[in-house]
Amino acid sequence: MTTNNNVLIKVENLVMHFPIYRGVIRRQVGVVHAVDGISFTIQRGETLGLVGESGCGKSTTGRAILQLYKPTAGNVYYKDTNLVKLRPEPMRLMRREMQMIFQDPYASLNPRMTVRDLIGEPLMAFGENNSKQIDERVASLLDMVQLNPDFSSRYPHEFSGGQRQRIGVARALALNPSFIVCDEPISALDVSIQAQVVNLLEELQQELNLTYLFIAHDLSMVRHISNRVAVMYLGTFVELADRTTLYRKPLHPYTQALLSAIPVADPTYNEQRRRIILEGDVPSPVNPPSGCRFRTRCPLADTICAEQSPEWREVEPGHFAACHKI
After folding, report:
1. How far is CA 210 from the centre of its chain?
2. Of the candidates 50, 159, 62, 177, the residue with the CA atom closest to the CA atom of residue 105
3. Is the pLDDT of residue 179 over 60?
């Protein structure tokens, strides 16, 4: 159980493995180590940013927290309720409190449903049958995400990408949730629209006291919106700290390499700073390296990195990392 009343989400040793089957009789020949034993908490009202390369397990982490994927092992607490142990009906009712904004606004909205039906569907799923009240709620939500309520009779193909993502945000807010997983909500949008959507999410957070897990690739945007940032590599966390500490004083070699790749609009500074180029490719999650997952690309790796997994520890107050060289 959570001991701090300010903790909304607590994840303990979360593991998510996907079996690999082959042959006519579908024999299991291995597993994909999508998430391997991560632990963290999310405070009420904060935004935890989650960054890392494609395929490192970010989206899987978000879906496992919401129990869209049933975790292989570990516990996920919402307040004091262990979601992993809930039966289907109590878990369904718990979904009022937890929602998700999906990455692709073109794929996440049913093209055969009007905006009114898309946003009103969660309300009907939880027992709201009054058509007038649904219409009023849909109009209120559209206004909240800065869209014209008269658009409720239109279909998704009549909107731009940014407008579609606003519809996705309105749908996520329909049931007044406390916690929202934002699964790369801006990656499919034009750069000019990304800032608008992020500013909207920040305004809604302040207005509705929302808590976010914000998954993204854009490190500059993560720094802007997040209170704390977690860095993920091949299914494990390598570093977690508040945004100011992480960006000013990254401890893990992988975090240092990521931050060195952020473009800066200062030619003089760009000439002076050291760009860290990682060699090789990310290993397969089907057969991850022994010891430290990052050792095959780490410039500091030695024998102990191959023999022992680094301990996830608090190096400084509020600053966690997993590296033998720290």
Report:
1. 15
2. 159
3. yes
Confidence of residue 2 (pLDDT cuts 50, 70, 90): very low
Query: What is the arithmetic mean of pLDDT over 123-135?
Result: 91
Going 263 to 265 to 271 to 274, the CA torsion angle's sign is: negative
Cα angle 42, 43, 47 (rounded to 5 degrees) comes to 70
Transcribe 147-198 into DSSP letters: --GGGGGS-GGGS-HHHHHHHHHHHHHTT--SEEEEESTTTTS-HHHHHHHH
pLDDT digits (tens, 9 = 90+) for 20-69: 999 888 999 999 999 999 999 999 999 999 999 988 999 999 999 999 99
The C-alpha torsion from 259 through 260 and 264 to 269, rounded to 10°, is 130
DSSP string spanning 276-297?
A: -PPPS-PPPTTSPPSS-TTTTT
Q: What are phi and psi of 97, to 5 degrees?
A: -85, -15
Q: Residue 1 has what pLDDT?
A: 42
Structure tokens, 297: 């690309």
Of 285, 296, 294, the C-alpha closest to 253 is: 294
